[in-house]
Amino acid sequence: MQGNTIMKALAVAQVGVLLAACNDEATSPAQRATHPASAAVVSSQLLPEGFVTRARLDPFFINQAPELMMRSKVATDLIIQRLVAAPGPGAWHTHSGPTFSIVDQGQVTITIYSKKDGCVSTTYGPGQTYFEQAGEVHRATVVGTVAAVEYKARFYMPPGGPLSSPAADPGCAPE
């Protein structure tokens, strides 16, 4: 049943990605600079072909029982992003809200750290999806020599806040 919920949420996220791709007003580098914590986390890997667009999402309640329920009692930002990252490891970081990701090009290894499970790495390729939980310490490593292209839908992000926050290196072995 959880797989069905994730698939429905990804379908919603994909529609958002398609709508965002039609937006001619992608966030400029000057606008991204207003979120230095976010920029510092991934700036060494981001390539200029990406974009970030965000909009306020007023409080909502969606209950499509039995498989999907989402609720927010406060205004948050919904963020749609096209992330283009160069080969190599990214920085360790967290996000304040959950993220659904679709890999469009390249290979991306996501390494997640938790006290319970330690370091767990999974590699995703074109057409595959993955989910990042809020507050989860992780990093992405673009595998191979080709840049990775991902589409991301970020939910429950603080209005105007950074996309990510730096996290300490938990000491995981290289992927």
List the defining traits of the structure above.
single chain; 175 residues; alpha+beta; Jelly Rolls; 5-stranded antiparallel β-sheet; 4-stranded antiparallel β-sheet; 3 helices
Helical content class: 10-25%
Count of separate structural domains:
1
Radius of gyration: 16 Å
SSE ordering: HHHEEEEEEEEEEEEE
Q: Determine the number of helices (DSSP H or I, runs of at least 4 residues).
A: 3
Provide the residue-averaged pLDDT.
80
Strand-residue proportion: 35-45%
Strand order of the largest sheet: 1-4-12-7-10
Coarse morphology: globular
- Quick one: how many beta strands? 13
Report the uncertain regions: 1-44
Structural class: alpha+beta
CATH level-1 class: Mainly Beta
The largest sheet, given as strand count, sense and whether it forms a barrel, is:
5 strands, antiparallel
Query: Span from first to last CA?
Result: 31 Å
